[in-house]
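hi! just following up on the protien thing from before. the input was this:
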Amino acid sequence: MTPLLGGLQWPIFQAPMAGTSTPAMAAAVSNAGALGAIGVAAETTEGAGKMIRATQDLTNRPFNVNVFCHRRAIPNAEVESRWIARLKPEFTALGAEPPSALREIYQTFRGNAAMTALLLETRPAIVSFHFGLPEEEQVRALKQAGIILFGSATSVAEAQKLADAGIDAIVAQGYEAGGHRGMFDYAAHDDRLGAFALTRLLVRQFNLPVIAAGGIMDGAGIAAALRLGATAAQLGTAFVGCPESSADQGYRAALASDAANHTTMVRAISGRPARCLANRFTRLAESVADAEIPDYPITYDLGKALHAAAKAKGEFGFGAQWAGQGAPLSRPMPAAELIKVLVAELEAA
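and the predicted 3d structure came back as:
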């Protein structure tokens, strides 16, 4: 292993998965010799601090704290009003009313002084960035604090920006990956590179550790990524079914159903492209043009409201059930046990 991974026994990283990973999950994975992670992008600074400290209380091993570096949303009252009207029949069928206006529910880490101060105070071993990069001053301050920095890239061009910024390792997010596509600019053309093709391209071009991510669910997949030159493999969907996950019963049931065989990339849930299990929301989104969808994360405000209204009626089909193309390989078990299984499969491979 490279010095970047000092203290880790296994080249297995659990993906941060904002809203799904928990301190208990991250600590269990790290305590098992792999790298656990929490995603704090959906949290306030206070909430993020509680998550980080709760994880630190459960493990003295390294773990990853992930933040989103998206650009601020560009409000458009007309588009947002039409979007509310479009989904109003779904609310009506559930005996609920949609919100009258939509909010920008998540703060970006870019220029976020309070969140930067929190990370400098708590000093997690690793901080990772999704959707782009923070400001140069933030990168400089985190590195001076001895924090290792990861950045997600979906293309060689994005990886070059990470390398130029001094990021320590690149997460090669393939098109197979579940959850939000990490594109810096989601309106730009997407070559939709798979995890293994992207990993190989980045390994050849950059003198930085590359972490393969997307569709990897077992030890054989981890071994394949390592053979291509990856330093480690990052798995997300593999951990959704763990008891430490905060996934609700509908999400877990969908992951264990035929829906796992039919993941789809959808923008209408949050405003950014993200891979989701086939459900009522993804079917609703099939006929929606991008121009009709409000900006991220404004769209997500309505998506979350619809899911909450449906969930109150026992309907889970409007949830953000993020999952990668390897979803049918999911094996629900405690996170530490899953690490043991993955290690055994990796060694056998």
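The chain is about 40% helix and 15% strand.
The longest helix spans residues 77-93.
cheers
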